[in-house]
Specification:
Elements: H1 21-30, E1 45-46, H2 58-64, H3 75-88, E2 92-96, H4 99-110, E3 116-119, H5 124-132, E4 136-139, H6 160-170, E5 178-181, H7 194-206, E6 211-214, H8 218-228, H9 237-247, E7 250-254, E8 265-269, H10 272-285, H11 296-308, H12 312-331, E9 344-348, H13 349-352, H14 362-374, E10 376-377, E11 379-381, H15 383-386, E12 397-401, H16 409-424, E13 432-436, E14 447-450
Helix pairs in contact: 1-14, 2-11, 3-11, 4-5, 4-10, 7-9, 8-9, 12-16, 14-16
Length: about 450
């Protein structure tokens, strides 16, 4: 069959509240045109993020009932370790309450003060944690990733020439670790090839630089490798995922993505001294190392979710859902970042509303317009999120991130209709200016006014 159906049945439903255009106009003004400030009950289709918005399975809910809430040495922790070890091969496993906690612990422990951390593209919290610790976050993604219309199959790849030049220019001693984000969220949810990961690892190890993965969407990346990389079609996504992890000296994971849970994170390490220091650092803010800021029931749900996410039927459905949305928008003439990514569609706001200059945030204007006409919440990935002062983001995007196992095809069809209608009305979109913002991660709480 050509149609890839949802590989599950719906057991519990949650009602969606409908709002009028007039009500949404008032809501936008009260939120100062920041969609993060809108109550979820006032959102019809919530595509703000795929992080922590997963619908859990019956097996995960059953596992929750087995949660051991012992403060130290809970059996739920050891079940999680068995699951993580089977998939990744890592022996040193620290649970955290979410991915950014893993990042903070890693960068504080390894020491990035006055140093440079290269990545294909740093996500916002990764960049913020590096900068908070006194380091410089540097993006070294391939040039094709900057071209929204390029259909390079692995636009998340790190540019090896740029990385080599950085090492030669700055010296390996100024690079405490090198990271690669799989899939590359800030670059459009684009995958990284296994060949590229191997070459990055070889280059780093040649210079004594630890190689880490930001592996929030490791399963989706593995599926893309299986689907697109020559000679790997007969491999399972599980075996490809294991090889990716085998290349790395460590990994940070927000389990709220491919862990299929609503809260949780992981820090994986191989170095014995580093794990000892990181464990002590974790105790300061997260809790005892066998629960790491999570309840035992959370550990159980994560242990089960990590097994479910590598099911080939689930991954085929997951990737096809995003691909379907992208195909229909392209057919309607809507400019998107191509090819469709693993967890989201990224609308190219520069081409969608070219009348709005970057300093007036075309991505934010588009996101506001989509909520205004249809009650759909996306998120700006552009100069609001990554700009500062006169600095502007190289791309102005709006991300429509798909929560896992939450929406059906009719919901996606509604999104297609809404985006297509907004594109027809794009000349009416208005730019914005920031009236108030914090010094870091301003997109979460900035206030705007329309021009």
């Amino acid at each position: 069959m050509k149609t890839i159906i949802e590989p599950f049945r719906i057991k519990v439903v949650e009602p969606i509240e409908l709002t009028t255009r007039q009500e949404r106009e008032s809501i936008l003004r009260e939120a100062h045109f920041n969609l993060f400030a809108i109550k979820a009950e006032n959102v019809l289709i919530d595509l703000l993020t795929d992080s922590g918005t997963t619908a859990m399975s019956s097996e995960q809910w059953a596992a929750i009932m087995r949660g051991d809430e012992s403060y130290a040495g809970a059996r739920s922790f050891f079940r999680l370790c068995d699951s993580v070890r089977e998939i990744t091969g890592f022996d040193h496993i620290l649970p955290t309450h979410q991915g950014r906690a893993s990042e903070r612990i890693l960068f504080e422990t390894i020491g990035v003060q006055g140093k440079i951390v290269p990545n294909n593209n740093h996500f916002d919290t990764t960049r913020a944690n590096i900068e908070h610790c006194g380091g410089q976050a540097l993006d070294l993604v391939i040039d094709e990733a900057r071209d929204p219309q390029s259909r390079h199959p692995f636009k998340g790849n790190m540019d090896l020439d740029k990385l080599s030049a950085l090492i030669e220019r700055e010296g390996a001693e100024r690079i405490p670790l090198c990271m690669v984000t799989i899939t590359n969220n800030s670059g459009g949810g684009q995958p990284v090839s296994l060949a590229n990961l191997r070459r990055v690892k070889e280059l780093c190890h040649r210079h004594g630089i630890p190689f880490f993965l930001d592996a929030c969407r490791f399963a989706e990346n593995a599926f893309f490798i299986r689907k697109r990389e020559k000679g790997l079609q007969d491999r399972s996504s599980r075996s490809i995922a294991r090889e990716m992890f085998d290349l790395a000296d460590g990994a940070t994971i927000s389990a709220k993505k491919d862990g299929l849970v609503n809260i949780g994170g992981l820090l994986l390490l191989r170095d014995h001294e580093l794990i000892h220091q990181a464990r002590n650092n974790l105790i300061l803010t997260e809790g005892f190392p066998t629960y790491g800021g999570l309840a035992g029931r959370d550990l159980e749900a994560l242990a089960q979710g990590l097994q479910e996410v590598l099911d080939e039927r689930y991954l085929a459905y997951r990737i096809r859902t995003v691909e379907y949305l992208g195909e229909k928008l392209v057919e309607a003439g809507v400019p998107i970042l191509e090819p469709p990514g693993g967890h989201a569609i990224y609308i190219d706001a520069k081409r969608f509303c070219p009348q709005i200059p970057p300093q007036h945030f075309p991505g934010q204007a588009l996101a506001v317009g989509l909520y205004r006409i249809a009650g759909i919440r996306g998120v700006e990935i552009g100069s609001v999120m990554f700009g500062e002062g006169a600095h502007q983001s190289p791309m102005e995007l709006v991300r429509l991130a798909m929560p896992r196992r939450v929406y059906t095809q009719s919901h996606i069809d509604y999104v297609i209709e809404a985006v297509t209608e907004l594109y027809r009305l794009r000349s009416e979109l208005r730019g914005l200016r920031i009236t108030e913002a914090p010094p870091t991660l301003r997109h979460f709480s900035a206030k705007f006014e329309e021009l």
